């Protein structure tokens, strides 16, 4: 009852408050590894993974057990988030007891780069001077010396390898071999954690590397719709320290209880169920928020889900000119006649023939049609089947299905009726 | 009490100011870019406030829909720090990286610094390191609101071109993940592309960026845009009413329309300027009638202009440029020696006709007759004709050098007599007479090389069995007929289904 009274009367709220709240929520939603992490609650699966990983790494730090692990799962399921949170926890629990080296397969798959980057990060961490000109062998020597040094002073090294599969795809897997090999010796105290979106990442390892890897895998799978919705609701909750925040939370809670919104979210997640995509939906809805009232509405979510799941082909077809549509329909007819190879010449010939038969007003010269043909190429609705030299003779192929073309014809406002006939009747001559 | 209320007043004032800035931007942009209100609203609400977190954004839509202009205008109007780089002008990763770094430090390449960049940066690793260094700079990101940093926007234009670079796919995925790789919370990444998320091949190694589509202009929007540019808006709007509809049926690209409508408008103004027509209802109707005759031919002409923003980047386009202009008048517009004219004709005939026909055409003449005599049913003949036509539409086929030279020789022998008449034509540079044509010497082969180098003839891969090079004519029908006419050569006689 109290809640409804809050809703019916307009809450007086300043724009500054709204802006602050939106900024905070945006930061929470954007996620990524670099945001303040402790605000976000974890899903149950991820939480158990976090505990195990925490135990594993603290074992390395405290008891000097060398360990390696892989975090596997589709994109946007919280692998990096969990690792970063574990590292942050450990850093507050055991400060100065370990240092972190972060590598990414996108940047450092190449051994030279990787070794340089390791040396650089270790130098920064230990306040040493890093020389850019250092050679590969010097860096390698530095690394081995550092490993020994760290082990002697009871300091652990944690290597976090993002896009682990890219490291594994290098010939000889030099870096992985060296790291995992160092793990075997007693004179070092390191842990290697790999993150990959490929579930078969450990199968990519060579035999000599695989035998040194300790086969600990943590699987991150997309949650159920309910869990994902709950996560989104959690994230969209403000710390309740003001009148406005309380009203906002109440409103959001009400909104998430609505059947229609649940329906919308479950429909949205049919394509991609990862928490990231649900958060994206929340982000886009938050962008649509009316900054005067400062409350999320169902409309915001509806609009967001439409924008986030675009139909690019249909949109492109919607914007085509009449002549471009004619050419596409002619191409579709040619494909229907089982012609394997056709080029602009063939298309134009067929187009002229059909125009002559039906006396349409849209009869264009060859040059104009060729320009329209080039537009289709630019829009990537058609593509060259093979490289030839002249535009008119180069074989092309259609990149859209006939169903897509049909929808496109219906959605295009300028499409003449005769085109529908040409399209739907293959033997219409 | 008094203090507090003053603080409140200051705050309210500030707030009002800020609100006006947001509204102002919206007005300013929608005024400058008609028909883009929806996109502008979407863009502004995603951009949000100066310190808001910003996920990767993909702005896409077909060319000339205002993607880049609106994005850049809005960012500079709002005074957000940003760097813009187009992957078309910066055609390799190094240029892209260095251009962004230059803009972030405010470095301008000039004679004084020997046109050097602020930092030399070839690899993505270095770029990430420098980016961390530069984006943390105080003067770029400092704000007066607490400890938050301003978002720095990096705009990558024409990202669809990166697909064609070596290692392009990895580069795209890494650019998309740049915020994670640099661990900078205040990095805003914007990608502008003419290819949508479905064709951009973002690959699996990245998270999906937020899409923002710029749709094509509708006819009314085109009308608004085109009238906006014109000083004589009344006359022009009347002109557009009659001419835009037929033109926009052929092409909806605003740059092309503006270009092709301009000469037509000059034509439209003529009777008005001459004083023949006064601008009243009667006059307008007259003008309308006067216009109708010009629209169709104007369309044929104007759309053939080479696209200015595309430039002439392939040899093929050069070729079309070379002879598309002079062909409008008579003559070729450039000189070809007699020998090369014959050679060109020979190649054209060889790549047009099936080799089985050679005997009939150039042999004793018996073959052709016997073939014609053979009776066949109508349907079979139809089918044959259809097949032949199909083959012709596919374009010139390749023919081996030997066949080509043989046909050339036959043509030369055939035409030996009539060549006397053509003495006013310049012969080979040496000025030898056309009997020279008879023997296939190295001279002819030289001509063939010349024709190949100017792309009138294409050399395709040699046949795997014989190892001889094969050739294909790269000229269109109009051109070859022009050549044939210039030396009074009955080309039609030699072509099947001419």
TrEMBL record, chain A:
One protein family per Pfam: AAA
Major subcellular location class: nucleus
Alphabetized UniProt keyword annotations: DNA replication, DNA-binding, Nucleus
Compartment annotation: Nucleus
Alphabetized InterPro entries for the sequence: ATPase_AAA_core, ORC4, ORC4_C, P-loop_NTPase
UniProt key word Membrane: no
Domain Origin recognition complex subunit 4 C-terminal: 232-408
GO molecular function: ATP binding; ATP hydrolysis activity; DNA replication origin binding
One BP term from GO: DNA replication initiation
Residues passing through the membrane, by range: none
Entry GO CC: nuclear origin of replication recognition complex
ATPase AAA-type core domain segment(s): 70-216
Statement: the UniProt record of this protein carries the keyword Ligase: no
PANTHER family in UniProt: ORIGIN RECOGNITION COMPLEX SUBUNIT 4
Function noted in UniProt: Component of the origin recognition complex (ORC) that binds origins of replication.
Family affiliation: Belongs to the ORC4 family.
Protein name: Origin of replication complex subunit 4
Organism of this sequence: Marchantia polymorpha
From TrEMBL, chain B:
GO cellular component: nuclear origin of replication recognition complex
Domain Orc1-like AAA ATPase: 32-178
InterPro entries found in the cross-reference section: AAA_16, ORC5, ORC5_C, P-loop_NTPase
UniProt xrefs under SUPFAM superfamilies: P-loop containing nucleoside triphosphate hydrolases
UniProt GO BP: DNA replication initiation
A Pfam cross-reference name: ORC5_C
Keywords: ATP-binding, Nucleotide-binding
Transmembrane segments: none
Domain named Origin recognition complex subunit 5 C-terminal: residues: 336-495
GO molecular function, one term: DNA replication origin binding
ATP-binding keyword on record: yes
PANTHER family for this protein: ORIGIN RECOGNITION COMPLEX SUBUNIT 5
Family assignment from sequence similarity: Belongs to the ORC5 family.
Protein name as catalogued: Uncharacterized protein
Species of the source: Marchantia polymorpha subsp. ruderalis
């Amino acid at each position: 009852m109290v809640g409804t009274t809050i809703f019916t009367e307009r809450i007086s709220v300043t724009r500054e408050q709204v802006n602050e709240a939106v900024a905070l929520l945006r930061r929470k939603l954007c996620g990524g590894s670099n945001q303040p992490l402790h605000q976000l609650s974890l899903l149950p699966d991820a939480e158990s993974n976090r505990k195990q990983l925490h135990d594993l790494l603290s074992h390395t730090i405290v008891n000097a057990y060398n360990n390696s692990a892989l975090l596997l799962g589709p994109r946007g399921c919280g692998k990096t988030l969990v690792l970063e949170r574990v590292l942050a926890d450990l850093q507050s629990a055991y400060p100065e007891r370990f240092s972190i080296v972060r590598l990414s397969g996108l940047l450092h798959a190449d051994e030279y780069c990787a070794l340089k980057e390791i040396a650089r990060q270790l130098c920064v961490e230990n306040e040493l001077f890093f020389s850019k000109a250092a050679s590969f062998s010097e860096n390698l020597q530095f690394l081995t010396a550092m490993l020994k040094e760290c082990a002697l002073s009871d300091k652990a090294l944690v290597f976090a390898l993002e896009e682990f599969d890219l490291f594994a795809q290098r010939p000889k897997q030099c870096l992985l071999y060296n790291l995992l090999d160092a793990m075997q010796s007693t004179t070092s105290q390191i842990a290697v954690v790999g993150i990959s979106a490929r579930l078969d990442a450990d199968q990519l390892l060579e035999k000599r590397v695989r035998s040194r890897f300790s086969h600990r895998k943590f699987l991150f799978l997309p949650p159920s719709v309910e869990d994902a919705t709950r996560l989104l609701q959690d994230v969209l909750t403000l710390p309740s320290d003001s009148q406005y925040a309380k009203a906002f939370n109440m409103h959001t809670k009400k909104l998430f209880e609505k059947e229609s919104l649940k329906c919308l979210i479950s429909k949205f997640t049919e394509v991609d169920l990862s928490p990231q995509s649900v958060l994206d939906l929340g982000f886009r809805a938050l962008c649509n928020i009316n900054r005067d009232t400062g409350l999320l509405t169902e409309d915001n979510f509806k609009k967001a889900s439409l924008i986030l799941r675009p139909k690019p082909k249909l949109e492109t077809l919607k914007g085509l000119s009449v002549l471009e549509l004619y050419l596409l329909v002619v191409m579709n007819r040619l494909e229907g006649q089982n012609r394997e190879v056709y080029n602009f010449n063939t298309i134009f010939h067929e187009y002229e023939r059909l125009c002559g038969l039906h006396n349409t007003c849209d009869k264009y010269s060859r040059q104009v049609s060729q320009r329209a043909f080039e537009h289709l190429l630019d829009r990537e609705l058609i593509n060259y089947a093979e490289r030839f030299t002249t535009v008119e003779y180069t074989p092309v192929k259609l990149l859209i299905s006939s169903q897509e073309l049909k929808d496109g014809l219906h959605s295009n406002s300028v499409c003449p009726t005769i085109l529908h006939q040409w399209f739907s009747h293959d033997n219409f001559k | 009490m008094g203090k507090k209320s003053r603080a409140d007043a200051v705050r309210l004032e500030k707030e009002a100011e800020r609100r006006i800035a947001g509204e102002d931007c919206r007005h300013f942009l929608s005024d400058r870019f008609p028909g883009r209100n929806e996109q502008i609203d979407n863009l502004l609400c995603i951009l949000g406030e100066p310190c808001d977190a910003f996920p990767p954004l993909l702005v896409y839509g077909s060319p000339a829909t205002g993607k880049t202009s609106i994005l850049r205008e809005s960012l500079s109007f709002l005074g957000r720090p940003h760097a813009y780089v187009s992957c078309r002008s910066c055609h390799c990763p190094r240029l892209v990286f260095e251009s962004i770094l230059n803009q972030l430090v405010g470095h301008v390449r000039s004679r004084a610094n020997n046109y050097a960049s602020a930092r030399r940066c070839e690899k993505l690793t270095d770029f990430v390191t420098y980016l961390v260094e530069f984006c943390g700079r105080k003067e770029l990101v400092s704000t007066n609101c607490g400890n938050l940093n301003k978002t720095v926007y990096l705009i990558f234009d024409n990202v669809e071109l990166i697909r064609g670079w070596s290692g392009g796919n990895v580069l795209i995925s890494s650019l998309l993940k740049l915020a994670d790789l640099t661990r900078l919370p205040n990095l805003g990444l914007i990608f502008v592309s003419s290819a949508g998320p479905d064709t951009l091949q973002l690959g699996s190694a990245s998270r999906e960026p937020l899409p923002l589509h710029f749709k094509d202009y509708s006819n009314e929007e085109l009308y608004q845009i085109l009238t906006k540019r014109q000083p004589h808006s009344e006359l022009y709007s009347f002109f557009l009413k009659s001419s835009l509809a037929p033109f926009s049926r052929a092409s909806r690209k605003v740059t092309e329309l503006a270009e092709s409508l301009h000469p037509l408008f000059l034509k439209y103004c003529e009777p008005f300027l001459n004083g023949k027509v006064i601008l009243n209802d009667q006059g307008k109707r007259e003008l309308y009638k006067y216009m109708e005759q010009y629209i169709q031919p104007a369309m044929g002409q104007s759309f053939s202009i080479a696209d200015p923003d595309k430039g002439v980047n392939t040899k093929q386009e050069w070729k079309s440029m070379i002879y598309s202009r002079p062909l409008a008048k008579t003559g070729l517009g450039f000189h070809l020696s007699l020998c090369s004219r014959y050679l060109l004709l020979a190649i054209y005939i060889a790549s047009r006709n099936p080799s089985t026909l050679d005997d009939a055409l150039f042999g004793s003449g018996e073959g052709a007759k016997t073939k014609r005599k053979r009776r066949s049913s109508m349907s079979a003949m139809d089918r044959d004709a259809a097949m032949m036509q199909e083959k012709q539409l596919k374009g010139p086929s390749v023919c081996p050098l030997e066949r080509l030279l043989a046909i050339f020789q036959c043509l030369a022998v055939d035409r030996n007599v009539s060549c006397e008449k053509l003495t006013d034509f310049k012969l080979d540079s040496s000025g030898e007479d056309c009997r020279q044509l008879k023997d296939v010497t190295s001279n002819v082969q030289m001509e063939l090389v010349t024709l190949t180098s100017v792309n009138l003839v294409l050399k395709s891969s040699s046949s795997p069995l014989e190892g001889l090079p094969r050739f294909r004519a790269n000229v269109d029908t109009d051109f070859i007929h022009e050549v044939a006419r210039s030396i009074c050569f009955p080309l039609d006689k030699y072509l099947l289904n001419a």
